[in-house]
Each structure stands twice: as C-alpha cells, then as structure tokens.
Amino acid sequence: MTSLNSLLTTRRRRRGTTSPLLINIHPNPGPRHAASRRKRSSEHKTIPYHRLSDAQSQEIEVRLRAGETVEAIARAVGCKIETINLRRARLRQLGEIKLYPAGRPPKSRRRKREDDASDERHPDSQPNPKQRRKLSEREKGALDYAFRGEDTESHIAATVGCHPRTVRKWKARIHRPGGLDRKPGSGRPRKTNERTERHILREEKKQSQISASDIHRSMRAILDLPVSVWTVRRRFRAAGLPARRPAKKPFLTKRHKKARLEWARLHESWTPEDWRHVVWCDETGFRLWSDRGPRYVRRKVGERYRADKVVRTVKKGGGKILAWGCFSSVGVGPIHRISGNMTGTSYHSILVRKAMNYIWQLFADHPDIPQWTFAQDNDPKHGSNLNKKYLNKKVAQAKGRLEIMKWPSQSPDINPLEHIWNWLKADLDKLGSRPTSPDALWEWLQAAWGRVPMSLITSVVDGMPRRVAAVIEARGDATKY
C-alpha cells in the first residue's frame, strides 16, 4: 500500500512546492486553479463580428482611417483581430482607406515621398483608387491633347482621372509609330477565320430569319468549332446584320403582286393635283385597351413585377368599336359607327347615307373640279352585287363627274387613310385616362375626327406619287408605307 507521506509528496510535486522558491519563477498552479482560469477567460471573452454595435463599428472605422494597428484596435474595442481584418478589407475595397498589410507602413518610403511631393505641388492631383485595365478612347484622346501642352504629369492625371504612372507610360508610347493605338495582333486571337465567317453569312442568306443560336449549334456540329453564340452575333454586327424586329405586312401571292404592279403602272403618271380629286374611304377598329406594338420600360434589377413597371392587359382588348370614315384633300368627311359586324347590306346603307351625300356636297362646293374619283379597298362586302349596282347607278347619274377606282387586294399600304387611323390611335394612347365604355370611346372618336390637322391630310395626299413609285420599285411586293 502507498503510504500517506508518498501521496502528500506526489501532490506537492504536482503543485511545484517540493523545491525552494526561485526568483522570478512562479509555481505551477496545478489542477486546483483550472476553474479560476476558465473564469478569467470568460471575463475577457470577445464579441463576435456580427454582434458589434453601431458605436463599435464606427469606432473601428475611425481608428482604421487614423492608421492604428489591428492589434491596438482589437484591444481598445474588445473584439477579435479577424473582425478588424474583415472590416479593414471592406473599407479597402470601397476605396475609403489605403492600408498596408497588418496596418504597418511599407518598408520603402521613396515612392510615397514622391507622391506626397507631387500632391503638395498640385493639391487636386489625387490618384484614382480604382485601378483600370485599359483606357477608353475618350481618355486616350484627352491624353493626346494634354501632351501637346506644358502641364505636369500630376496635373494631367488629375484632369483625365488616372494615376501619374499611367500618364508616364502613355507619354512614352505616344512617340512610337502608331501613337496611342494598340499594336496590330495584340489581344486575344479570333476563334473564327475567313472560312467560318463566310459560313455564318452563307447560312443567313439561305434563311434570313435564322437565329444566332441555330448557327452556333450548326458550327459546333458541322465545323467542330467551339465558339460561343456571342461570337456569332458579333460577326453579324461586323457585317452590318444586327438582329431587328421584322415588319408585319399582309401575305401577298403572285396574283396579288401582279395586280398591285398593274395598278401602280396605271397611276404612275398621276400628279399630286390628280390625287387631290380622290375620295378615300375605309373601316377600322378602336379598342378600349391599347395593344399597339412592343413597349419599353426603364427599371432596375428586381423591379420586373412592380406595379408601375408592368403593362396591364384585358382579354380581347376590353371591347372595341368599328368605325367607317372618308376624306379628301378638302378635309375629313363623315364618320359612322358600325353596329356589330359589317355586312354587304350595312355597307350599302353607309354608301347611301354617308358616302354619296359627301361626294354630292363636293360637287356643289367645287364646281370647277371636273371629276372626282371614289376609292375603296377590295373587301368582299364592298364588291357585293348590291353595292356594285348602286355605285354604277350613281356614276351614271353624275354624268361623268364620278369615277370608281379599281383597287388591288391586300393593299393597305397604298391607302392614305391608314395614316389618319394611325394618328387617331396614337392620340388615343396619349390620353391619361382612356374611355371606359364603347359609348365614351365613340364620343372621343367623333371629337378627335374633327381635330385631324389639314397638314396631315395634305402630306398624305401629296405623297401618293411616292407610294406608287415604291410599289413599282418593289415589283408589286410590300413597301415601307
């Protein structure tokens, strides 16, 4: 058995009390003081980074800008050194402070003394904290213009917004052949060559509505060329073929194109004075909710579905009204609201009550004009037997003062009344609050019909020779009108 003296001696050895005390040597506290050490460490426990108060965060930023070391700030604020390093890196990224590793100044102060001396000579010449990889064309031009004067490098750097070392580098480059331009062959080499670029343009000629993604996939499959879709788009832009929205035009068959071309050649010799003696008529629809073409909105990321950034839609436009109208070079004629769908019988009623009354009024107001021409599109309801007999009867009654123009099918681009309809619809879109019922929309349309400017009427009538020439140039196909 172990004696009591040996146990006491073992305990004294563990506590370091078996030998005499040494100067400046503290005894081993032993296991007895472990609880007190844990207590002292808990008293000096640091505060995590995410639990810093606003006052502590502000104090850290102030001390960092003052140039204090990280260790001193940690002791003063009572937080970890890692927390100070995170806050220090954040301020350095924002460009608010310029710090060196561990908060210490650099070993060599030669370059710093040169920068301080230049700042003393020119107080405004502070170097730009944002390091740029290359200068823009505007900045290169500004440097080229500044080098012709006698300004110092620091003043030029402050004016352009770059570092004085950048000015010295570009000042040395300006004396080489080519000036500030990049050397030929510099930069990343092109993935495509002349052969592959011809392949891209050849695919576009085969099918003009093919997308860049389709050509990109074909190049990977056929040519085994690992290029991106953006490379294909850049080649199209370089060839002057950027992607655009296609224009919407009526479908034209060979018969339609032939009839349009014959009509244009028949009226090729007409002058603007001849077109001033024509009465045009047409129908169109006006919707309560606008659906005219694509719209654009300026918004930030995450605002796609904000209330004021979306376009509201209603099924079938929320309702619409059909209107018939006519005009001539004298001004607008009567406008009529069509109830329901227009039929041959309802159009016959419009001819009797509206169109012919307006033409006979022109006969009375302008007796010096020998003949007027009535132009209507080739709608099946317009060419019904009932309406044909009625118009032939009116032509006979006019005794040579009225003529019916033969109109080609699928030809809204040669009817100037379409421009007036578009002007009215654009004016409707400008309203702050649109009409909420068909009756209110009809009241607005009647008032707007009387406000059609004479300058617009004169412009579309006098532009008819250009429309005819465009049809002949397109060989009967669609035009820009």
Could you explain how this protein is built, in words?
The protein is built from 20 helices and 5 strands. The protein has a 5-stranded mixed sheet, with helices on both faces. It has helices at 4-15, 34-43, 54-66, 70-77, 81-94, 110-121, 137-147, 153-160, 164-173, 194-206, 212-223, 229-238, 254-266, 272-275, 344-365, 385-398, 417-429, 438-449, 454-462, 464-473, and strands spanning 278-287, 320-328, 331-338, 372-375, 402-404. It folds into 4 domains: 49-103, Arc Repressor Mutant, subunit A; 110-173; 194-238; 254-293 and 321-473, Ribonuclease H-like superfamily/Ribonuclease H (Nucleotidyltransferase, domain 5), CATH 3.30.420.10. It is of the alpha/beta class.
Short description:
With 481 residues, the chain is an alpha/beta fold. It contains 20 helices and five strands.
CATH superfamily of the largest domain: Ribonuclease H-like superfamily/Ribonuclease H
Percentage of β-strand residues = 5-15%
Distance between the termini: 119 Å
User: Would you identify the regions where 5 or more consecutive residues have pLDDT less than 50?
Assistant: 20-25, 41-50, 99-132
Tally of domains = 4
Average residue-wise pLDDT: 79
The total strand number stands at 5
CATH top level class name of the largest domain: Alpha Beta
- Summed up, the helix count is 20
Q: Tell me about the biggest sheet?
A: 5 strands, mixed
The helicity comes to 40-55%
Shape: elongated
